[in-house]
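Spend some time on this chain, tokens included, and walk me through the fold:

. . .
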Amino acid sequence: MTNLRQDARAAKPQAPAAEVRNLLDKLAMRASCRDFDSSMIAPETLEDIVRDGVEAPSSCNQQNWHFIIVADPVRKERARDISGGNHHFAECSALIYLCFQKGWTHGNFSIVQSVAGACYHMMLSAHLRGFQCIWNAGIGDQAALREMIGLPQTFDVIGALAIGRAKSTAPKMKAPRRPVSEIFSWERFERPAASLYPVKQADTYPFWEIRNDSNPFAQWNPTEWSWDQIGDFRGYSVWAKSPLAGVYVSRRQGDALEAEHGLLGEVKPGARVVEIMPWGGTTTTVLLDRLGPDVRFSVAELSPNNLSFIEERLRREGNNLAHVTFDLMPNGKLAYADGSIDLVVLPQVLEHMPDPAAFLDEAARVLAPGGTIIASTRNISSAYGALWLETESKAQIPNQGPFTPLAARDVAAWIAARFEIVEECGIGAEATGDATLLTGDACHQGRLYAVRGRRV
């Protein structure tokens, strides 16, 4: 809130005219789309959109930007492959690659800011014309892309704008925006604590030392985060992907999910089941299919944004939500009565928690006598654990939030202290990808450790 004193002599701002307000409201309805119908847009219309874009301001008015329209279906498929799997690159009407000439007005990224301004101007032009679009920085291998679009070394490409018409079945939901009160302040920096994420302490944080693949200041240890910070991080970043059915599937789960769910055993009709912190709902839709429609199912998450995303994802996967509830768990506390739950599922989330052992106490509280807990975790005592230490943990924290793999033997001890262990296994002998099932002593050496416990 402003602390500026009111000045009676200051002119009061006039309320915007109705037509201005209507236009601003229309612009605010713009939402990113990743589900296009592949229809054509007239070349002259695409050129007009670019023409609108370059009305944006440019640093020193040099306009050292360049925009390459790619509409050929074969080249769009190639663009999809280069991007690493952005399916909408092949389905949109056209891609506009956002390029700039290197060497001029680099201070404070002024040329990059200029291109970004032009890009958003194009997005608004497309929106007002009735099209949908999405801007992507994830465009893939630069060398392969440079060859495809014939880009000289004196230019760089920083993103691609996909434009087209949304499928009738495309999500209509706009990703959540932070309350304005969180993202601005008067006179000096002020921001809510939950949106200030922990970093490793340093005197300075030089920009050029911080990259996605290398961030020496990234705080991966969730014990340094509060529940509110973890919820805030996950609650907004979950919307980095649209809730499209069958498209965005977790690579970290893969075939391992089937092995994890193999521990479920028989779940009786009418059982009360809770899945804890599934983030985007990839595991949730598979679990619902496995359990069938006769269970009473709940999703427990840290942010309403996660819950709205998961609900939309489940609808699009065709799940029946008549017996599904979506519940918040503030500060890691479950909103269920003591002894009211028959099955608690923790899909690789203990390693994301500030105090995983304490949360197992919470799981024990809500489980009914004879109830079951299924927990899986990434295992630091594995080939994957070595990879995480050597490589993965040196990068930026992923969208799922901070985590540190746990030692399988520690997790087994925590479970044994609260539940009777019925079955346990390791999943994955290699650092990534495989879902080899490991039993006996080897179960503590798998990429993942999974366990089934019973509340006595």
Observations:
- The radius of gyration is 25 Å.
- Residues 378 and 451 are 12 Å apart (CA to CA).
- The chain has two domains: 31-164, 256-454.
- The first helix runs from residue 18 to 28.
